[in-house]
Amino acid sequence: MGDVFIIYRILPESPEVDIDKLIDEIKTSNFGDNIEVKDIVTEPLAFGLNVIKIGILAPDEEGITDKIEEVLKKIEGVGEIEIEGMSLV
After folding, report:
1. Cα–Cα distance between 12 and 60 in angstroms, integer?
2. For the structural domain made of 3-88, what CATH number should be given?
3. N or C, fewer C-beta in 10 Å, the chain?
4. For 74-79, what is the mean pLDDT?
């Protein structure tokens, strides 16, 4: 099996959430073996709310997206999570 590159779009709970702190939490989260955060960018959305987009490289195995989303949902300040794109590497 190969690897998969997944792009997640993360919305903070509110505009008051410290984006820099949230990004640090994401970077230091333990997603598991062979799962690595490769890229993080922020983009303005609306009304002072920024969106965080992260690129994660992970093994192509069943249930990997669920495993990653579980970790992301446990981070304080994370509102909604959606997969924006996914491709085999």
Report:
1. 27
2. 3.30.70.60
3. N
4. 94
